[in-house]
Amino acid sequence: MEPSFLIAKLITFILSLVVAYIAYHGYRRSDQKPMLYVSGGFVFIGVGAICEGIIYHIFDTTIASAALIQAIVVSSGMTLILMSLRK
User: What transmembrane ranges does the database entry give (predicted)?
Assistant: First the structure.
């Protein structure tokens, strides 16, 4: 795997986990359910950022299959964030 690609994916993963932690901390302080949804959404987005490469290399699938799984995971995170905005 290309080192610059790996670094970019890791930065995305770390940033999404930092945002998720801050949102969770906001949930704990204010006890507002939407913040919990935001936190969960960013966890899914962070996992989605790295899962494509992991699935492709470890499970030896096609890039299309790995991309489909990544899209599902990221879409799940976006759905959680959208739910938090609607409440």
Answer: 6-24, 36-59, 65-85
SS3 of the chain: CCHHHHHHHHHHHHHHHHHHHHHHHHHHHHCCHHHHHHHHHHHHHHHHHHHHHHHHHHCCCCHHHHHHHHHHHHHHHHHHHHHHHHC
Instruction: Give per-residue pLDDT as tens, 6-51.
Output: 899 999 999 999 999 999 999 999 999 999 999 999 999 999 989 9
Measured CA to CA, the distance from residue 33 to residue 84 in angstroms comes to 8
Q: Where are the domains of the chain?
A: 3-86
